[in-house]
Amino acid sequence: MDSSFLRFKKSDYIVPVFTVLLSAGIFFFAGSPLYAGSTGDTVKVYVDGKEYASFPLNEERDIIIDGYAGLENHLVIKDGEADIVDAHCPDKLCVHQKKISRNKETIVCLPNRVVIEIEGKTEGYVDAVSR
Predict the structure, then answer these.
(1) Would you call 129 helix, strand, or coil by DSSP?
(2) Which residues 6+ apart lie within 8 Å of 32 measured at CB?
(3) How many CB atoms are located within 10 Å of the residue 104 CB?
(4) Do residues 73 and 112 lie in contact, with contact meaning Cβ atoms separated by under 8 Å?
């Protein structure tokens, strides 16, 4: 067997190195404020498409939201995060969603028609760029 057959050439390193650099770039970009949104300052609550209430994100609150058809959601604002901790809906998917604190993040409870959205004062927010 020819020993030159087992040697790597410079071109053999291009794809693995490019893949590692691309993966590292995506990993670091995903944690940046441009990707995740800036920290919000207001919690907006919508019921059946209409604004129900608005609360500052930096003040601790415990709120019962009267959703569609009298069903309730229990919203807790604490440590700069909003979270639905209990709901009177059959699937409770909204309870299992993560706490939200960044601009444009939402928690949705479809059976109760409740949407919790974080809004911030940041103008010119870019979440995607297209050409």
Answers:
(1) coil
(2) none
(3) 16
(4) yes
